[in-house]
Amino acid sequence: MTIAIGSDHAGFQYKEAIKQFLTDLGHTVINKGTDSEKSVDYPRFIRPVAEAVAAGEVDRGVVLGGSGNGEAMIANRIKGVRCALCWNEESARLGRTHNNANIISLGQRMMTKDMALQIVKIWLDTPFEGGRHQTRIDELDE
Hints:
Blueprint: E1 2-7, H1 12-24, E2 28-31, H2 43-54, E3 60-65, H3 69-75, E4 83-85, H4 89-97, E5 103-107, H5 113-125, H6 132-141
Parallel strand pairs: 1-2, 1-3, 3-5, 4-5
């Protein structure tokens, strides 16, 4: 799977850890930045991830910030993106099974690094249920 990843300064450390984790799992990772903990404006690094997912250039995306809220908001402004803000294992599982999330947003200040990696793993491994959930996704896209 090809996965785009992006963060602001507040998500940089976890972005680097997730990048390595995904690579170790055999995925191709496209880094959209940022490349340090120097303060930046998150839309510059999150929008390119969302646009790559929406255009089909990558299969999925991971975005990070301090809380993950702003990152999810900017990602979800791009048509075709379904970005789930995840804070625990169940939110990641439901983001996939019910919402077919093609991007997840994580807050570095909201969880441990181990939890962030576990959330990413669950999100990668969990299939979409389809059925009644597909109907709802179709309504989102109308």
